[in-house]
């Protein structure tokens, strides 16, 4: 049930009947202006079109516009008589009989009145897509959790969703472990305990590459600081002598330069620190001395793999399954899955042909030995083959898009990828359009960074990114401390065994990570705070899961089961009497609105907000309306009906967020 679209349709018809209709270009544009009321005092929905129409139409003020429209519309089957407020807002209040009938219908509908779309789209979602060869880290949370939620939600709305994990299984990261294996590895250890051994090799080589890079950057950074300082001094001097507006402008640019100096000094300092740390470690510093050109050497190993070198190919085939096992363990823990896992390596055989085709069609041209697609919209071209013959991330993405078009014919392709890849996708979409690779709508569903409590990108003390698995473990531990606190657990009857406690902690801990992530506007950065995210109150997974458990426990206390309640409501209907019952019922029938909002902006936080407001409406209802000691059987049945529906809506919504519920906690 999506009331705003129903109202919008009725208003469009009504507007078309009004004397001023011919003066409006598109009445629909106005009838769409239906919003949930900000304040329940004014009703449940509000139509805001009278003001903009009043501006366009000669001789009528907005109130008169609203009056005319209301004369043409009949909403009796849903609402009480609409009211005009202030400058011309139309307030709509759902009628009691409509609410009661809707709740009665809802209890017989296993989709909680969420309709399947009449126009299903084929939507391909590219998400998670980690670079394997190193363990998954905190940076992989967002894409995995947001992508999974979008897939579940769009599927539930009736779209044909295909999910694809575009694994980075072919890039430099394999050059890194191949180099690591050849120089620091040990066949026996890799065979016995591959995952940690490969992770260790990755860390060593990555560290040494970082060391070499830091050393190489020292001079450039120092020179850059000098130049910036001179520029800053000059700008500051100019600001001194300038006047008025000009002075303000100059001060601003001097300030910007001062910040650049600071940032570059910070980079220099961190390079110096990482060098010092390596040199303080005798093993590492010896390795660094013995592998002075490790960066180039790693690239060599990668190109050898791509060129089909037998040894590197063999090692890649040996390592890849272990890398996959490693990420699959994390996916199992997070309860996420994919229809397809077509990694970058899958597309490698298609790249040479693709580039040749584009050259032949005159769409790609050679420049300085490299093959490029030039674009009007961008200063720099998209390079698709380097001078040395190597293909790039972008080349693979073009081949992937072509393959997806041929294989799935999607209407939309969603790339759930870090905002820092924004430019890559902007270019990719323009190139795809220029080359007519696909008819699909292409969307970069971008997201911000996960920050530590200090507001900086989350890292371990040694500077590496925090492993995802250990983060999940920590969240589950933190959840255990809160929800399985001995004083709390002691109240349960029958007693809560340790297996049940562990299952609850797992659901709450994993749920906490997902919920906290999904609750933020995806485009902004957010601070990761374990302590906050496992709390039982506030906008947290635990609060939502607890609300669900509470709904189940009310049924247990009254001694009825869901089927029985459903049957009573189906035969006798409901009688809503209290404001808290009414508020809860309205919240419940808005489920589909929340899901459509998720699709509209690819914004899971819309669903989280909905879960939270439903849980809050349920808490108020619980405070104000006794169920066990209800004043009459009729009222008790109504309340039980609302409890059952709340449980179902919360469970369904949490499932779409990728979060499990437990029957008691
Ligand atoms: N593997 C890439 C990374 O970790 C993300 C891939 C996203 N998907 C894509 N089709 N480019 O940065």
TrEMBL record:
Sorted UniProt keywords: Aminoacyl-tRNA synthetase, ATP-binding, Coiled coil, Cytoplasm, Ligase, Nucleotide-binding, Protein biosynthesis
EC numbers on record: 6.1.1.19
Domain DALR anticodon binding: residue ranges: 544-665
Keyword presence, Aminoacyl-tRNA synthetase: yes
Catalysed reactions, as listed in the record: tRNA(Arg) + L-arginine + ATP = L-arginyl-tRNA(Arg) + AMP + diphosphate
Superkingdom: Bacteria
MF GO annotations: arginine-tRNA ligase activity; ATP binding
GO biological process entries: arginyl-tRNA aminoacylation
GO cellular component: cytoplasm
Main localization of the protein described in the UniProt heading: cytoplasm
Cross-referenced PROSITE patterns: AA_TRNA_LIGASE_I
Motif ('HIGH' region): 130-140
Claim: Zinc is one of the keywords in the record: no
Subunit structure and binding partners: Monomer.
Protein name: Arginine--tRNA ligase
The organism of origin for this protein: Stieleria bergensis
